[in-house]
Write a structure and sequence with these properties.
seven-stranded mixed barrel; 4 helices; elongated; Cyclophilin; mainly beta; 21 strands; seven-stranded antiparallel β-sheet
């Protein structure tokens, strides 16, 4: 790999700042988790705005972000996703738009305003190790590169980028109370009829969570018919397990590859950003969705991303 140039010095690393791309696919059969960005829509938009391939690695910035000093002479960046009170040299910086930063500039993230995760892309690429086809960081397996205080982040810069922004109607809104579409099953038969109905009528609060999953609490536990275990089964992104305590768990980017609890439903992929950006204490209501409708929404979003070569601001 050609040696890159210094892009940033990390003065404060923030609460949890990692390099992520779209994930480490093709290895779940060997017990390797997928990882990748939590909000793939925002990360892909950030890359599009700086002219990168959609799957290029970005900095995923969670809740309380870092403070970095720009080391490149000139560099185009874009930040999409949560509003984490980003400033450049103390001045409010734009979201959902590409802009130029210069050597010595200080980029600082403050308190969350909306959402919980922001994505910083540079025009070019970060120089970080690729493991099993992905640059995504996964701490438990020591995959990827951890962002630490005092680090210098290296990369390759592509210059002469146009400054472009996303049309306002395309910018997603991040709420504290969300409605999420889900496909019922595949283990509905493990739950009582009342529990299956309750899942789609109750309001659930996110009481605990990380990149692996969010534990939810409704007005009362979801009841199993008999046992709360199944033969170990592959777990998709957005799968909702219900262990013996009756509190659902939504499995996210760093989820395990298999699990032994029945799944009552699966969140459709285009709604996963709502979960990724849900603040602590936020609430979720689940809405029934068919596989056919989920496919339609996915195709519509894919066409949008493919066509966003020249966004307008």
């Amino acid at each position: 790999m050609k040696m890159g140039q210094p892009l940033f010095t990390v003065l404060k690393k923030g609460l949890y700042t990692t390099f992520q791309d779209l994930g480490r696919y093709g290895y779940q059969q060997f017990g390797v988790v997928t990882s990748g960005v939590m909000d793939s829509f925002s990360s892909q938009l950030a890359n599009i705005l700086v002219g990168n391939p959609r799957g290029e690695a970005v900095l995923e910035i969670t809740m309380l972000g870092p403070k970095v000093r720009v080391e490149a002479d000139e560099m185009t960046i874009a930040v999409c996703g949560a509003d984490l009170s980003m400033t450049v040299n103390g001045n409010k910086a734009p979201l959902w738009k590409s802009f130029v930063v210069k050597k010595g500039d200080l980029i600082t993230f403050g308190k969350p305003v909306t959402g919980t995760r922001a994505y910083l892309a540079v025009a070019g690429s970060f120089q970080i190790e690729t493991i099993l086809g992905s640059k995504s960081f996964y701490a438990k397996a020591n995959f990827g590169t951890e962002v630490k205080e005092g680090d210098t982040i290296y990369g390759h810069v592509r210059t002469n980028q146009k400054k472009i922004g996303l049309s306002r109607h395309l910018i997603p809104r991040f709420a504290k109370d969300v409605i999420v579409r889900t496909i019922p099953g595949p283990h509905e038969d493990y739950f009582t009829e009342e529990a299956n109905e309750q899942f789609f009528t109750d309001c659930f609060q996110a009481v605990q969570g990380d990149r692996m999953g969010y534990r939810l609490r409704g007005t009362k536990p979801l009841q199993h018919k008999e046992k709360a275990e199944i033969a170990s089964d592959a777990i998709p992104l957005g799968g909702i397990q219900v262990p013996s305590n009756g509190e659902p768990i939504i499995l996210l980017a760093d989820r395990q590859t298999t699990g032994g609890y029945p799944r009552i439903a699966t969140v459709i992929s285009v709604d996963m950003y709502k979960i990724a950006q849900l603040p602590p204490g936020g609430t979720i209501q689940f809405e029934r969705c068919t596989i056919e409708t989920a496919h339609q929404h996915y195709k519509k979003r894919e066409i949008l991303l493919q066509n966003l070569k020249h966004p307008q601001g």
